[in-house]
Amino acid sequence: MLSWADAEKSAFKGVFARFIRVRQMRNSESEVHGRTAVFTIIAKNYLPCARVLMNSVAEHHPDWSRFVILADQIDGYFDPRSEDFEVVLSVDLPIRRPRWFHFKYTLMELSTAVKPYVFEYLFRAEAFDRIIYLDPDIRIYSPLHEVTEALKSANIVLTPHLTGPLEDDKRPAEIDILRSGTYNLGFIGVARSRETEAFLAWWRERLYDHCFVDIARGLFVDQRWIDLVPGIFQGVLVLRDPGCNVAYWNLAHRMVSRSGSGYEAGGSPLSFFHFSGYAADQPDKLSRHQNRFKVRDLSEAGQQLVEAYRQELLHAGYFTCRKWPYGFASFQNGTHIPDMGRPIHRETPEVVDAISDPFSDAGFEAFLKLWNEPVQDEDGARSGITRLAYRIYRNRTDLQSAMPDIFGGDYRRFLEWMVIDGREEYGLDEAFLAPVSHAIRTCRDRRHGRAWPETAAPNEFSNEPIGNSPANGGPSLRLTRLAAAIYRSRAELQHCFPDPRGRDSNRFLLWLLTYGKKEHNLSAHHTAPMEEQWRSMVGSLPAAPRLRHELIRRGMAASVHVRGALARFPRLRARLWRAFGHPRPTPWSVVAKRAAGRSQPSGEFGVNLVGYFYSETGVGQSVRAARGALEAAAVSLSLRCAGDRGPSLKQDRSAGPMSTVFPYSTNLFYVNADETANVWGSLGEPFYRNHHNIGFWVWELEEFPGRWMDSFAPYHEIWTPSTFCRDAVGRRAPIPVFSIPYAVDPAAPPGMDRQYFGLAPDRFIFLAAFDALSVMERKNPLAVIQAFERAFGADSRCQLVVKVNNAQARPQCVEILRNACSSDSVRVFESTLAHDEMYALTQSVDCAVSLHRSEGFGLFIAEAMYFGKPVIVTNYSGNTDFTHADNALLVGYRMIPVGHNCDPYGPACLWADPDVEQAASFMASIAGDAGLRTRLANAGQAAVKASLSPAAVGQLMRQRLEALCEMNGQTLATERAASLRRQAV
Does the domain at residues 764-948 carry the CATH identifier 3.30.1160.10? Predict the structure, then answer.
């Protein structure tokens, strides 16, 4: 490779030589008349794309001058003199304060922000009459006569993203195009004129400070600014030729085909194709920015075109260049610049005035200080949350949903996310995480500090009663005052070791001398009396048990050291956790965290309601429905959103604002058993203390898993949505279990009819629905497809819509469904809908079908019945509480093993296998018998509105809560103690 200095000198000499040459050419009008230039902008890893583009320009327009603007540094990776085009460095363009300009923008933003500067440079320095910009991932397939003809009369030529409506449910949809801009700036043509000079000056000034990707502020790099151009400037032509700028966003209107002269698009010669988002190492994907087409969905000619382009990229050095580093990604000292921090300087403009080169050592020091400056919480206290960390948080709605109170109960959790996941996702150098790591280690905000409790004479033995052991009942272990104080201060220890001086003595002693010693920073002096008892206890055992105890202690001590080592290497720790299937370690012995706004129960009648309020999942919908039911029953509420680690969008805000104070004596957690430990770790033990804690659980099989028995520990009772769930959980529960159904009260907004969803008005439409975040085998949509195709074959009068929620999280589910369809009458609807849209979709169809293998409740079924839709359902599990022979078509079944790869369900467990033939017969009957439809629909609607309305369900909840209010503090404590004893047994 060339040295950096040689390459930079070479590029500079080239620019200077061109400037002299152009000055000479200006003396001859005949030499410059009608000259055209084409340019593109790249980082050096996109060099293969630029080579393919410029080769195609040379093929069809050999007289055009070709320029590649490098918004990067060469750094010796290639020789610009060997390329078949001229390379211009973006730092050599006439940009004021160019170093700051290149610092404040990400690579994508920079590559678009320099565009007007290139036009001005080529017009002034090279004296071209027409200049065309093309994105580097474009290839020309025929001469651009339409463009050159347009530029003879127009000042500016643009191409729209769309020339027709998008009627399907794919992405990008029309709303996405609105967000990104009407015109695609992968192409723009400009002719020399006074109007053009005014346009470029206007555009340049806007892009100098406002070329960001900031959808919330209405900005998407350079494209949204161009939306204003046809109204502001004269001579703007919108080129609608179907052969120009063909890409994934308009392929629905421009099918690619072959003719004797070459490729065509929409019946016109293909001028140029835009391969935006295409990657040669993923040949099956047309673009990472869309889900409308895969390469195999294209016409034969389209597939040939994509594969030929792929081969050109490979020959141009795709695999060699793709890993070349971006030259403006680091400070001069090698520290990576986090893109999220680049715009922070706008909040402190004095930094720009003080530092001439932000990439320099002085710039690094300035930004290190700026980014690491702590953000103050609402009390004015300085925290471990830095400016950079807070900016990341503000730009991540998923973090805001999962951790709504980062200055309170979610404080430590957010800090840990920053040093593990944040480090990985944003490439954060240790220098920018040092304050965060320090705050975790020292707990400087005093929220989560864990030192051993203050006690006089810590090494004296305590005679006070501890746990379930009497003070002088001859226990096998004597506790020092310090050990007793530690035990009393930690509820989880009291739960795990209810009799620390008796039957749990050896287990508690093992913990104290290993994990406890580490967690409470105990010295050898403080543990000496307990060490002596350990030696005495172990020494009295026979050889085999003695060896076993010693091995266990050594293993636990080694675990303490390993955890301490992993804490210093969070990336390794994160990888190990994920390798074993745990996003976070959440043992019950985790340090308790103080919840924000938490206060002692006031005694006032009400509920602190906890759940995934923001999640677009069944669990999220259940807690929102509970809120409506409790409000209908006039029960006072405080709402707390639990952190949802799942991949749903978490953008549902229909429950309203969350609470900051939780004064009621009852906590109701709409959190399943498998997430109990995570929510406990997030909220902290004080949130549970002195409260009556109710867990609302859903389980879909008849056998509740033994691995979740520990999840009963924080609760006094469990609620479930159906008698099926109640019986399944109740068989294993050490505490009472009640059945409280979901409240069903969906409301479809006006104006969302079949046309809104692209459904034919004259077809009989069946609807099946499931969430990809659930287990597809349990929801069993494949059986619905089989039944539909057996019932109707190729009959186009009927259609089946299979709605998949959160499809983006598990695209393989959609792939399986599409492969199962042999009829065009089956439509897989994979866009995630808001709840009101889903309600509207349900209301617009004719019949709902659920051939599930098991349901905890069957919310989709109940909602369809509420809307007066006949339903065809498996006659098994939670839905049988409200689906009966008089209001639904009940499909028979046989019990079969679950099988493998259906976590969290064990392979040997049983669930239902519905009769597909009977389901097909029911589908044919319901489509052909209007009287049957009406009878079932009316009966189902009446049943659901009577028993599952918010008022009815809310009254059930209120009755149970009023019974709880009759319990005084002593009764509550007695019940809790009994629960713990049962759980210990």
Answer: no
